[in-house]
Thioredoxin domain-containing protein (Neptunitalea chrysea), 353 residues
Amino acid sequence: MKVANVLESNKIIDYKNQKLILLDFWATWCGPCIPATEQLEVLQKQYANELFMISITDEQKNAVQKYLKKRPIDLMVVTDQDSYTFSRYNVISRPYAVLFTTEGDIIWKGHPGDLTDKKINVYLKKYRGNKSKKLSSFMKVVKQETVKLDDINTYEIEKVSGEATHYEDFYKEDEKFIEFRGDLSVLMAKLLNIATADMIADFTDFKVSFKANRQYYTSKNEELLNEVLNKYHLRMEKESQSEQVNELKVVNSNMLWRNDQINWSEGSDENSSNFLITTDRIEADNLTIRELANLLSDVKGISFVYNGKDENLYDWNLHYLHDNLFREDLEDTFGIKVQQKVMKITKIRIKKE
């Protein structure tokens, strides 16, 4: 494996004579990664003398450091070198883990939650006689080169195999690039800045891999959308339908959090948007109320709308899982009421020409 930065050493155990090495693939935006990594920390303590764990993400160093200040990880934390390790082991979703021998042979891979005591003991019994090696023989730290904004074309997109999921398998955003892998309709929703639920595709199994120059993505949004539609011979149609929605109504604007309450954009565009979805909370940096409504629609699976005119950026930290707690948190913390009503909603339908 190649890494760009070692951000944290393993706080549980030093690398000595362990016979197995586990790579924990994660991301700061990945809610399910939190309990998965916590479970691995327990296993690291339990098998400290036999197993050494490394948590690896392909995000920017500054973003990860900001995250670790809020949510420390006790395993060794490293950042990937130009997504080399993620690509080598074909990591397209996370949390994900790969278990190696000290020779570098893969003996298990999958969701970290599936790595049981029974499996670990079977592998230890089989490979306990292997010779120990230096960690540097397995992990190479490579100097990270600065990437210029014009080092790639304005954007790259290609259709990839795999069943479409109506959500992204992978999404990464930093000060240089936007990267996405998932259902084409989800990418269209992102380009239009609408909820995924408001995008209807008249086809299935259309998954794409997408990478764009961030500057182009933000300044040429409509142009990019049209180019993607033309490339795949698609067209969009608007249609209205009545449905019950949850409208976000600001009743006390003084309670809204200014966009300096959470700051995950250090070292990049100070107004870039980032969010973290855990098992029960949303933490977001620099989202408008309308963008929050779109995010809530995707996370909760029901329609949320905002019909106000406030397009300022705000920070958010709220419960979303249980509806009563969600409504109380939104009103008591941010001065926003949720009102159910039936109204006409504009949906975007994508059709093949």
